[in-house]
């Protein structure tokens, strides 16, 4: 009975499954961190791009308005 328990691999299999699950959880946590940080950076890039586009359009409208004022005056 004791020899049978020493040769049994049930405990090792359980440990291997535990290590596999732990590794999967670690990989998922790392992937979630990088995903969240990339989403944050993307939001900042979109905000900067929107501000630059809005400023360029405002400048173009201002220039066009000034030219129309010069033509009518």
UniProtKB/TrEMBL annotation:
One of its GO terms (cellular component) is cell surface. The keyword Transmembrane applies. InterPro entries: Class3_signal_pept_motif. Its main location: other. The chain crosses the membrane at residues 12-36. It is found in: Cell surface; Fimbrium; Secreted. This is Class III signal peptide. The lineage of its organism: Archaea, Methanobacteriati, Methanobacteriota, Methanomada group, Methanococci.
């Amino acid at each position: 009975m004791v020899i049978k328990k020493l040769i049994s691999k049930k405990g090792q299999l359980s440990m291997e499954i535990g290590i596999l699950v732990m590794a999967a959880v670690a990989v998922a946590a790392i992937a979630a961190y990088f995903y969240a940080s990339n989403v944050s950076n993307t939001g900042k890039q979109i905000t900067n791009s929107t501000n630059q586009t809005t400023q360029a359009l405002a400048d173009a409208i201002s220039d066009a308005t000034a030219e129309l004022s010069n033509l009518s005056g």
